Amino acid sequence: MLHxxxxxxxxxxxxxxxxxxxLVLLLLIVLFVPIRYKLxxxxxxxxxxxxxxxxxxxxxxxxxxxxxxxxxxxxxxxRVAWKKWNAASGEASVDEARELVKEKVAPEVEEVAEExxxxxEGPADKPVKEIAEEIKQEAVHFxxxxxEIAKExxxxxxxxxxxxxxxxAIWDRIKEFFQNIKYTISKIYDKIKVLMKKKDYIMDFLTxxxxxxxxxxxxxxxxxxxxxxxxxxxxxxxLVGFEDPYNTGCLLAGYSMVYPFIGKQAVLTPDFEKKVxxxxxxxxxxxxxxxxxxxxxxxxWSREVRKTYKDIRGFKL
Length: 317
Hints:
Blueprint: H1 2-32, E1 35-45, E2 51-58, E3 63-70, E4 73-80, E5 83-86, H2 87-120, H3 125-160, H4 163-206, H5 209-229, E6 233-241, H6 245-262, E7 266-270, E8 276-287, H7 289-300, H8 303-313
Parallel strand pairs: 6-7
Antiparallel strand pairs: 1-2, 1-8, 2-3, 3-4, 4-5, 6-8
């Protein structure tokens, strides 16, 4: 009997170990198998000639996604194992829905509308018209009587109104005007005082040594993450020009800021005379989820970051 119990426990243990091993294997696959991407672009001078392609793959192409831009339209396709979804399937489903509405819903709507029209235009048509005419005549008489009554009441009120009431009303308006001015000035002064207090509070929060240390740690970890995520291959040779030379100059200024990081891999030639977009682009790289786990782990185990996060949640102005 004991031998049977031990055998059952052994089988249960083996099953649990296999399940645990599968879960660990899946976790390792998610963390360490990279998501690979490749972006290519080609343009021959106009937006109509722009051709861009983005391909994303994961786990030996088990999951594949493609996005294509050409002729000013987007096309996409996602494949997981043998299952596919794409823009064409979406359009087909829309067409099927339209056909379904045309075949089933539209006839029912027409039938209901026809029945409703027959009920309105049936034998009850004449009494409805007579009742509507009587209601219309009563409304006209009531409207005329109400105008006469309102006119009489208005004349009586104008006759009975005294000059003292007018003077009192004017004085109340003047007094209310100066009270509003006083209230507005007091409110502006209170807002200035509150803003000054908030400014001091914010500056104390930002200049705190613990918070500054947390910001430095977060900045360091973010730079490290961007270094991990930067493309393995980046090539660009572009001729760019806008209708407004100012926009071309802004683009060139932005390019000069990132030039130290991309070096000679990207060549940008500005054209200040005409609107043009011409050249080729190639971006290729991979992303691993373990990089984000490392970032979260380092931030989580930082005492300064935990303290700052707690202070931010309780921060109130």
